[in-house]
Structure formats: structure tokens, C-alpha cells
Amino acid sequence: MLLPLIVFIPLLGALLPALLSRFAGFDPARTAAAVTAVALSIPLSQAPEVFGGAQLVQSWPWMPALGLTLSFRLDGFALLFAFLILGIGLLVIIYAHYYLNPEEPKERFYGFLLLFMGAMLGVVLSENLLLLVVFWELTSLSSFLLIGFWRHQADARQGARLALLITSGGGLALLGGVLVLGHVVGSYELSAVLEAGPLVKSHAWYPVILALILTGAFTKSAQFPVHFWLPHAMAAPTPVSAYLHSATMVKAGVFLMGRLFPTLAGTETWFFAVSGVGFATLLIAAYIAMYRHDLKGLLAYSTVSHLGLIAVLFGLGTVNGAIAATFHIINHAVFKASLFMSAGIIDHETGTRDMRRLSGLARYMPQTAALAAVAAGAMAGVPLLNGFLSKEMFFAETLHIGWLGHWYWVPPLVATLAGIFSVAYSARFVHDVFFGPPPTGLDRTPHEPPRWMRMPVAVLVGLCLLVGLAPQSTVRPLLDIAAAGVLQHPLPAYEIKLWHGFNLPFIMSLVALLGGTLVYAARRTLFQMHGYTPSRFGGKRFTEGAVAGLLAATRSIVPRIENDSLQRYLLLVFLTAVAALYRGLRSVTLTGSAPLTPIDPLAIVATAILLVAALLTVIVHRQRLRAVIAIGVVGLVVSLAFVRFSAPDLALTQLLVEIVTIILLLLALFYLPQETPRESSMPRKLRDVAVAVIAGGSAAALSWAVLTRPFSTISGYFIDQARPQGGGYNVVNVILVDFRGLDTLGEISVLGIAAVTIVAMLQGLRLYARDVDWQGGPWAADVHPLMLRTIAGPLLPLAFLITVYLFLRGHNAPGGGFIAGLVAGAALILQYIAFGARRARALLPMNYMALVAAGVIVAALTGVASWFFDAPFLTSAFGHLTWPVVGSFELASAIMFDLGVFLVVVGAVLNILSTLGRLHTAPPVRTLASQAACAPNDASAPAITSQGAS
Amino acid sequence: MEVLVSLTIGVLTGAGVYLMLRARTFPVVLGITLLSYATNLFLFVSGRLTLASAPLTNYELERYPDPLSQALVLTAIVIGFGMTALLVVLALRAAADTGTDHVDGGRR
What is the pLDDT of residues A208-260, one digit of tens each? Predict the structure, then answer.
């Protein structure tokens, strides 16, 4: 249970800084630090076991059918990263507390930071590769929030967007690669994938897997040529840069290379892809870094360059390469975090990061200067510092690359050249800023930062020195288990020594140090020769150009399809549907082999009535009231068809829905124009008729094809089991409330949502009823006709009796919640019509929305209740009940569920119709003049007309 | 009987499509209602035609209709009412807000 906590404590803890700051007044930084410390305690507590050689794996099924499990792994490599993420995270949290201005929203900053931290921990601790991809994308998203933290700044927004675009795009490639890899291996669990190296490497899809996964890794770790997002991400607050670009975000890319090292590394393809890209990145970024005037820009390119170095080492595919890469991951994280923090201090205390304006700061902030100088020395690879050790290992490795034949001399040369540049920019970082004459033209006089802002830098620089001076007794154990975690086998004997003798790697280091110093000394000439400006070429421009081009292309295509006419869209939808249907029907014979049902005269008559009524609806549709009458006939014949074809429940439902639908349509007509104007041109009508004929013909052909084919169904099961398992004879009802109860729960929820939406949409709506009836005459003076009142009054108790009857018998005979609900709804609506809203409301004085809500809750609770009997959601039970007089009848727990259905249906029907009816409560008999007098100032008074549209 | 049912479904679909292509909201509502009839009938008869029977097992009939398609269509009818109501209200709201009952509102 412990491993997921490492991930979920920061993820869920991300809410705490804001919550505790608002409700308890806690300092967000302290909260975030506490959360991090708690999370850190878990890997610390597990460390002894991992140092003992254990690989902890904890797993819970999540979506087993997809191969997705919630499984976590803590081995040496993961432990190293957990320490880096949490340890440096803690320092960054402390640092940021002093860096951010008091008025900035710290709760948000720390929330984002913890979210990112949790995502990052998820990446390094995932045992399941799919889970890893999920967290991977989460790091992209949360880093977007962090980089764009100063959202009022355009460059911060652009930088964040660029980073998101590149890294999440790479994440998609990674997902693809992981899917293929998992398919080849047969499992997404790392334990299986790491064992499957030989299988994967010899598989035909190995190049595909490699290309996709490396795209993910390269984009994340800013390798050339997709490195350009990283320098633009420098628009983030400096603590974010210190965190993302030392220990976390960009390290996720190299982490992935190390994690999948046993599975993917060691082939020629791997070497050329990873080391090739790595060398290019190493050299190009180091060169560019020399010319950056912005402190953070220099550090950004330096970061890219060092990531290239790590990629080269992993790309070698050798044991020593992997050890050196792991070692450099640690060293780079430590010195680069401290350098970013130093840059932040300088920015904070002087107001600028431009090295052309900074000078001689050592006299104002000697302690910071000393710390930064040591860290920069580590970056340059000065002996006695940690950077020197791993860099020399790197130099040594470049000397025995077997893949290159007689081009073997290229890697050492490139490495030395990059080393020279790296010394040069490190020297510039220290010398330009801290030495020379006092600065001029600064906004303020620089001074040392608060002690606690310097503390994190001091801790990290102390580590640089400790590791540099005594690697064996400090970092060695951690490096051993981490490298063993990468390789997945015990390490051979190797040495980390300060002095290997006067050998070739040492000479390379020496050349780099001397050459770098010379290059720095000649910088003025170089700058003039170079004249480098960052905007001359750049991936940012290219990417933004591509995005803009895509948008422009879309904007030119869309108007051709979208002309803002819903009629056009609908036409396109119908044509597409018909075309799709045609494709399906084209290759099959239309008439199947099933025997036909005999036709009888009654059926012919009924069909004729239905067809005439349907066509009549179309023909008279401009006289709306007549069309409603015609469509009512259609509905009635449809319900007769249900009777004929052995569906009594459907017939009842259709009949009742027909009644309420007609009332609904008539209510709508009360507010809408009574006639539809003639506005379609003849060609347009003919076109629509053609579309309608084709659509109808296709539907008829499809039905015919279906009906004439033999058929096998799963419903035999329901028919057999309705009684034994559901306790009812009415199979349809048992399916609704029992077998497929969850579907029904969803459906009544939809009905409830429709009712809520309708009420919301009618809120504040002012509709004016028509002054004249559909024939243009005055409305009948008798609003509530006597005849109707005489019948409706006594009908109500009868209707309720029938409701109860239909409801109770529903499980065994036609009826049930839906039908009973519709009967009750229709009966109450009749009271509205006969007696008006006031009297009707007196009959059922409650909020109809509450009725709907109660129904959904009752139905859901019935489902929940079965949990208390250790049964799955919505399991039903039933038993016999003997009532005096009535006799014995079945009582199933499903009846409670059906009660929920009943309540929702009644509530929804009443709610919809009564709300619509109540929109206008004034007597409809009014003259035009009186209407004008009623709303003289109401500009929105909608005189809904049929004119004014072409 | 199959030919009658297919014909009915075809005509209801065609009539529904034609009305849905009209420019005013009310015919569109009528068109959707007709199309719903067609769809419900089609779903229902996908369980094939069974005469003189019922999905009631206490009658111990020789042949039962397909209860599954019936259950499916029963909820479809009720939800269809909810949807029609929503559509009507949408039409009323649009008419009140734009001053016309044209489907494209007042823009055209």
C-alpha cells in the first residue's frame, strides 16, 4: 500500500496549500513542504530494502481487459529519481517562498508544483507502461501550468503552449510506442517488458517501437532538433526552471531511456538513433549557450547540452555507459538546480539577468558568488567537483565505441569540443556576473539574499563538493543500486576515482579546461564574428508558423461546408447516412430466406390509414394545427401496430405518450405562429422530396432486408429466467426493472435531466400568447368548458385507481412504472386543462422537480440496498405476500425500483407541461392594443412572426 | 405483413426527413416525431413479427415475441417524449430570443 502513496500524497496534497491557506490561514509554502516531506518519508523508509537489492512491486487491477493495472515499482533507479524529485522539490519549495513576491498567488503556485511533483513521481514509479504514459501526459499538462504561471506575460503563455505542444505530442508518440511494445511482449508490466529484450530487439516492429518511444523521450528531454521548447520555457518563474530543468521534467526523457534500457538498448539502430541525436544536441546546444546573454538562457542551452551528453551515454548500450549516464543524471540535477537558483537570486537582487549589464557582483554578494562559482565549476567539469567525475567517465566512454569503424576518432573530438564550449560558458556565467568593475545602471543596489533563500543553493553546492571529493563514500551506494536498476542485473566491478593517472580522458579534460578558458578570453572577437541572434532560425518560429498555417487552412476550408445554415447541415447528415446505408446494402441480396407472415385485410386498412395520415402531415404541415391532428392519427395507428405485434406494454406506452405529446405540441402552438409561410422555392422542394424519397426508400429496403432474414436472439434467456430470477411473468417489465435495471436508471436520469433543462431554459422567458385563435377569430370565452369539467372531476380518482392497479401488476402483466407514471401524468394534466393551474396544483401541492429527484434517488437507493446483502448493484429479491381479500401476490424488491421510475415519469411529465402552460397565465382574450399597452417598454417583447426570413 | 411494415417505416422516414429539412422549427419538431416513430418501429421489428402472443410467461404460449427489443423501445418512447419536449422548449426559447421561428434564428 505504500508505493502508490508516494505518488498520491503530492497529487492529492496539491489541494492542500489553497484549502489550508483559505480556511486555516496556513502558509502555502509550509503546507507544500510538509506534504513533500511526508511523501519523502516513504521512499526513505523503503530505502534499506532497496539498498539490499530488492525490487518492490505493488499492483492492483484497474482495467484488466486493457492491460492497465495500477502497479508501482520501486527499484534502485526509481528510488534515485524519487529522491531527486522529492529532495530537490523540497529545496525548490523553500527557495520559491523567498523568490515569489508576497502578492503573487502562492497557493496556486504550490498547488501546481505538487501536482507536477506527483505526476513526475508517477512516471518514475510506474510498473505498468500504460500508467507511465498517463503520468507522462500529466507532467506535460502540469508543467504547462507551471511554465505559464505568470499568465499576464505573453512570453510565458507562448512558452507554456510551446512546451505543451511539443511534449504532449511526443507523449502521443510514446503511447503508440508503448502499445506496440506491449503487444509484442504480451504485457504492459515492466517486469515482463524488461525480461523481453531479446524478443523485442529481434522483432520486425523493433524499429517502429524505437522510433515512437524515442520520439517521446527526445521531445521530453529537449534533444535536437526539438530542443527549442526548453529555452522558451525559461519564461517560467525561476524556481520552476530550477525544478523542471534539473531534476524532473527533462529528466523524464532520459529516465525513459534508462528504464527501457534492457529492452531496447544495445543494437546498432539504438546507438545511431540515441547517441547520434545525443552528440548533435551536446555540441550544438553547448555552442549556442556560449552566446546567450540571458543567464537563464545560458543555463537552458547548457541543460539541453547535458541532456545530450546523457543520451550519448545511454545510446552506447554498454554497462559502463549506463553507469556513467546514471551518475551524470545525479550530478547534473544537483549542480544545475543550484545554478538556476543562483540565477534567480541574481535576478531577484539586481532586477536583471542580462550578463551584459551585470558585473562585479562578488563584492555585493560574496557568499552567493562563491556558491555559484563552485556550481559552475561542477558544470564545467573542474576536478574535485562532481561534474568532473561523470564527465571524465563520459570522455573515457567515447574512446571505445565499436560501431563506427575507422570513424572512431569523431566522438572523442566532438566530446572535447563540447567540453571546451561548456567550460567557456561556465566561465562566462561566473566571470561576467561576479567579477570585473561594479555594475552600472541597475535599478537597485544588489545585496545578499535572505539566508533561507541561499540555503537550498548551499545544500546543493555542498553535495557537489562532497561527491566530488569523496565519491566512494557518498554517492557510490546510491549509484550502484540505481545503475543496477537500469541494467536489471548486478554491476561488474568499476571504479570512481579522482585520479586515474595521466591518461587520454584526463588529457581531454585538460584540453577542454584550457581550450574553454582561451575561448572565453577571446569572446569579444567571437561574439563579433558570430553575431548570433536567437530569432534568426528557430523551432519556435517554425512550430508557431505551422500552427498558424493549420489554422489558416482550417479557416479556409470550414466556411465552404459551414454556411451557418442548419438546414444545410441536416441535409449533409442525411446524405451521409444514406450513403453509408447504401454502402452496406449494396453487396447483399435484399430479400432473405425467412418465411413471411401472412397479410390480412385489417392490416392493410390500418397501414393505409397510417400512410395517409403521415403524408397528410407533410401536405398540410403549413397549417400547423391540422398537421398536429394528422400526426396524432399516425401515433394512434403505431400503438395499434404494437397491439397487433404482441407488445401490449409498448401499445399502452405509445398511446399515453401520444396524448401528452399532442398536448405539448398544442401548448407550443399557443405561442408560435399558426402557419408556416411558403418560403421554399420549387427546386428546393423538389430536392428535399428527392432526399426524403431516397431516405425513406433506404429505410424501407433496410427494414425489408432485416425482416426477411432468419434471426437468432438472446432473449430466450430472459424469457426462461424472468420468473425464476426476476420473480415476474411480464418479461419486458422484468428486463426493465431487473435484468437491465442499470440501463433504466440511466434512462430515467436522462428524463430527469431533460426536465431540469427545460425548466432552466424557460426561466425568465416571457412569451406572449396569441390574441386570436388559429382561424383568426377570438378565443372561446369559456376557458374551462363545463363538459370537460364535468368529466374530468370524477375521472381523477378513477385514473388514480387505474394507476395503482397498473403499477402493482406491472411485474406480471402489462403495466409498470413507466405506464402508470404516464397515466397519472396525463390524468393530472387533464385537471390543469379542465380547471386551471390553481386548482390542479392544489391536488398535488409539491414541487414536481422534487418528485423527479426523489424518483432517481429511490431507484438508485434500491440498487445500493443490494450491496448490504453482499450482492452486486441492483440485484433484486422477491417473495410471496398474502393480503386478506386481495389474495396472494408476488412482491419483488424491484417494485421499489419501479416506484422510482414511476415518480420520475410523473414528475417529468407534469413539470414539462405545467411549466410550459404556466408561462402565460393572463387570460388569452386580449386585443392587439392591450398587448402593446402591457409591454410598452419591453424591447424583447417577442412578436414571433413568420416574416423576416428568406 | 413484412412488406406493410417496411413500407410504413419507409414512408414515416421519408415524411420525417422532408419535414426536418423545412426552415421553421415547428415542422422540424413534427419531422423528428415522425422519424422517432419510424426508428422505434424499426427497432421493435428487429425482434421480428409475432402475431397473437405477448411476452407474458404465465400464459405458457407456444411462441413469445422478443421481449428485449420491446424493453428497448419502451424506454425509447418515453425518452422520445422528453426529447421532443426539450426541442419544443428550445424552439420557444429561440423564437422568443430572436423574434422568429426560423431554424437559423434572426441572422438570415
Answer: 999 999 999 999 999 988 888 898 899 899 999 999 988 899 999 999 999 99
User: Domain spans of chain B?
Assistant: 2-50+60-107
When mean pLDDT is compared across A448-452, A665-669, A782-786, the lowest value belongs to: A782-786
The answer to whether the Cβ–Cβ distance between B67 and A719 falls below 8 Å is yes
- Please indicate whether, in this complex, the C-beta atoms of B13 and A696 are within 8 angstroms of each other: yes
Interface touch A699/B42, C-beta < 8 Å: yes
pLDDT confidence of residue A568: 87
Segment A779-784 mean pLDDT: 76
* A711 shares contact with chain B (CB less than 8 Å): yes
Percent of chain A with pLDDT over 70: 94
- Of A381-385, A398-402, A627-631, the one with minimum mean pLDDT is A398-402
A623 forms beta bridges with A675
CB contact (8 A) between residue A596 and residue B2: yes
pLDDT of residue A407: 86
Which residue type sits at A419?
Answer: G
Closest CB from B2, B20, B23 relative to A597: B2
pLDDT digits (tens, 9 = 90+) for A28-46: 999 999 999 999 999 999 9
Question: Which pLDDT value is given to residue A939?
Answer: 39
pLDDT at A190: 94
Beta-carbon contacts of A148 under 8 Å, excluding residues fewer than 6 positions away, are: A156, A157, A159, A160, A161, A236
| Range from A373-377, A604-608, A773-777 carrying the lowest mean pLDDT | A773-777
User: Which residue in the set B17, B26, B55 is minimally distant from A574, CB to CB?
Assistant: B17
How large is the average pLDDT for residues A590-603?
88
Indicate the residue of B22, B56, B89 with minimum beta-carbon distance to A762: B89
Chain B within 8 Å of A907 (Cβ-Cβ)?
no
pLDDT attached to residue A948? 38
Q: What is the dihedral of CA A719, A723, A729, A735, to 10 degrees?
A: -60
Measured at the alpha carbon of residue B42, what is the angle toward residues B36 and B44, in degrees to the nearest 5?
100
Burial letters A83-119, b for 16+ CB under 10 A, else e: bbbbbbbbbbbbbbbbbbeeeeebbebbbbbbbbbbb
Query: Nearest 5 degrees, angle CA A190-CA A192-CA A194?
Result: 65
Q: Note whether A307 contacts B: Cβ–Cβ < 8 A.
A: no
Residue A714 has pLDDT above 90, yes or no: no
> In this structure, how many other beta carbons lie within 10 angstroms of the beta carbon of residue A805?
14
C-alpha angle with apex B93: B91 to B96, nearest 5 degrees? 105
If you ran DSSP here, which 8-state letter would residue A443 be given?
A: S
Is the minimum CB–CB distance between B27 and chain A shorter than 8 Å?
yes
pLDDT tier for residue A920 given thresholds of 50, 70 and 90: low
Taking CA atoms, what residue in A is nearest to B105?
A949
A266: left (phi > 0), else alpha (psi -120 to 50), else beta? left
Q: Inform me whether the C-beta atom of residue B60 falls under 8 Å from chain A C-beta atoms.
A: no
Beta strands (DSSP E) in A717-760 are none
Domain boundaries, chain A: 1-253, 265-416+433-500, 729-939
Class of domain B2-50+60-107: mainly alpha
Mutate to test the interface with A, among B21, B33, B108 (most CBs of A within 10 A): B21
Chain-chain contact of A949 with B38 (C-beta, under 8 angstroms): no
Q: How far apart are CA B77 and CA A292, in angstroms?
A: 70
CA A31 – CA A14 distance, rounded (Å):
10
Residue contacts between A and B (CB atoms, under 8 Å)? 334
Q: If you average pLDDT over every residue of chain A, what do you get? A: 87
The mean pLDDT value for A437-454 works out to 85
Using CB atoms, pick whichever of A564, A646, A766 lies closest to residue B107: A564
CB-based contact, B82 to chain A, within 8 Å: yes
